[in-house]
Amino acid sequence: MGRLTSKQYILAALARHGFFFKKRLGQNFLIDGNIASMIVDAALVNGHSNAIEIGAGAGALSELLAEKLEKLILVEIDPFVVKMLVEEFQTYPNVSIVHGDFLKLDMVNVMRGMSESYAAVSNLPYYISTPILSKLAFAENPPERIVATMQKEVADRIAAKVGSKQYGAFSILLGNLYEAEVLFAISPNCFFPAPKVESTALALNRRPKPLAGDISKDELSKLVHGCFGMRRKTLANNLSASYSISKELASNILQKADISPSERAEKLEINDFARLHEAMRSELM
Ligand code: SAM
């Protein structure tokens, strides 16, 4: 194929199905074949033969994926786009199309019959990039590799290094489970309509084990968000406020974990949070 990155072709095909652009759904379709190939190659670099694509749109990535994979699931929310996808992929027995809001789908159900080891690919709709990535990462059956394009600032936050301005709760919670790698920048002109923001392609590789050990997602999230509560405040102040404990007790717990009470949360690595969690558990329970 290769035609689903042709602006003329996709506009005509979409129009036949009554499609009109919906800004609220983040519909910026990729119209650059080279970028589409680079994203798909990056997604399948570990040899996965099963994948899910979230927000398939007019199929720029889907058509390349369909040629290479044994099983491909396409998820798309817009019924007019789904009609076009059904027509374009009718000759592909390896492709299943799911019409729905990805954020509301039951991942276990959707992935039934797929290999446990699979990749996820997406030109993410900008307005819900973070919720989609969270849903994938924290799923019961998470993908081993995720390659996604997103607004540059979101990718920078995910891949941020400890101590930097961008480093925050999401870098830590995702970094606990996945190793992030910034792949390449994508200019707005590669999409139609061109978005107002720069995009970045990012790869996330599932770690064999979470860096913070066996702390539950909810506990780690509570601790990390609690520590970042007010960015400019010290850890002792933030912990005291978020766990309703005295500043003195918060300072003792931090010292027990070998962390200075006057430090700021952005200076903590994931293993610091793991030690802090242990100290909290032994002092507060
Ligand atoms: N993959 C296509 C491409 O590369 O050209 C389309 C990417 S476009 C940035 C995002 C797509 O996600 C749109 O087709 C939009 O309709 C779809 N979408 C938006 N919100 C969605 C949701 N909650 N669940 C599934 N698809 C969604």
How many alpha or pi helices? 12
Bound molecules: S-adenosylmethionine
User: Low-confidence segments, ≥5 residues, pLDDT <50?
Assistant: none
The geometry reads as elongated
Q: In this structure, how is the largest beta sheet organized?
A: 7 strands, mixed
Order of helices and strands: HEHEHEHEHEHEHHEEEHHHH
Helix amount:
25-40%
In terms of topology, how is this protein built?
Blueprint: H1 7-16, E1 29-30, H2 33-43, E2 50-54, H3 62-68, E3 71-76, H4 79-88, E4 95-99, H5 107-110, E5 119-123, H6 129-137, E6 145-151, H7 152-158, H8 169-175, E7 178-186, E8 191-192, E9 199-206, H9 217-228, H10 235-242, H11 247-256, H12 270-284
Parallel strand pairs: 2-3, 2-5, 3-4, 5-6
Antiparallel strand pairs: 1-8, 6-9, 7-9
Helix pairs in contact: 9-10, 10-11
This protein binds S-adenosylmethionine.
S-adenosylmethionine is lined by residues 25-30, 54-58, 60-61, 75-78, 81, 101-103, 123, 125, 128.
